[in-house]
Amino acid sequence: MNSQFAADVDAGLSKSSKTLPSKYFYDKKGDELFMQIMALPEYYLTRAELEIFTEQTPLLIDALGMNKSQHFELIEMGAGDGSKTKFLLKGLLDQGYDFDYLPIDISGNVLEHLVETLQPELLSLSIKAQQGDYFEILKTLKDSHAPKVVLFLGSNIGNQSDEQAAAFMYSLGENLAPGDRVVLGADLIKPVDVVLPAYNDSQGVTKAFNLNLLTRINRELSGDFDVSQFEHAPEYTEEEGIAKSFIQSKVDQTVTIGAIGQTYSFKAGEKVHVEISRKYNKKVLAGILKDTDFNLVNTLKDSKAYYGDFILER
Ligand code: AVJ
């Protein structure tokens, strides 16, 4: 695990345009900072999707296309704390749907916490937590032959390039049957004055979130990054529709990473690309789905049309 981290860091910092993978943001401190990000006034994404789940619950339920007399499985990839999903689950129970809720997460702790918060609030809910890799679990679930709805929320798809997202959706389709549905939550393309502040908040939480990656390298890989000599530098254009985060060196400097046994030099102003947050519209989505069997059957947006939950049918 740590050697994979070392290999990924070495590969990224050895490129002529340096990169570091955003998946390593999420250590304990990173998880905490991401929770703070979700509560920021500038970070509209979480509130916008929550608004869809609270204000449009009946529409969302209809869009799932499930039959009340037919048992189905509601699967969530990366459920987190379930704070949005809870409203959908409650609505389905109130309307008398017959379903199991199957949250999937790599982290057993996350699942444990989710069950402990959800079950007391929704006593009649059948929760079947699944710990592991999304696609490995989905493969095992294929045998049940129950109709399925898969939730992939939070604009988590946005951290993937369009090529990666297309491969991801293709794999998802392979693990579902015709008629199954997906709720794909995605931030929408809109002007820079709304998007960029979400990745460059006035309190500097996003800056701390990104720079925490250097602190993690120092701690876990015996690096000697002087974090104060790096800046947080996000970019976005509406034309491209992709928020990009860079860690920028303030000065000419070298950094040694003990666990790799390498020294890397940074020029003043040099940028390390750490994250993309892809924004969506129907055209972007169509490109990603073009080699899959998914059709877009409905789109729910928040009242400002900042954010979309795309309902896909296989
Ligand atoms: C968790 C991937 C949806 O890209 O908006 C937030 C991560 N990065 N601020 C996003 C993130 C910086 C977030 N996602």
From TrEMBL:
Matching InterPro entries: EgtD_Methyltrsf_superfamily, MeTrfase_dom, MeTrfase_EgtD-like, SAM-dependent_MTases_sf
Residue span, Histidine-specific methyltransferase SAM-dependent domain: 5-313
Highest taxon, organism lineage: Bacteria
GO biological process, one term: methylation
Annotated transmembrane regions: none
GO MF annotations, alphabetized: methyltransferase activity
PANTHER family, alphabetized: ERGOTHIONEINE BIOSYNTHESIS PROTEIN 1
Listed name of the protein: L-histidine N(Alpha)-methyltransferase
Source organism of the structure: Leucothrix arctica
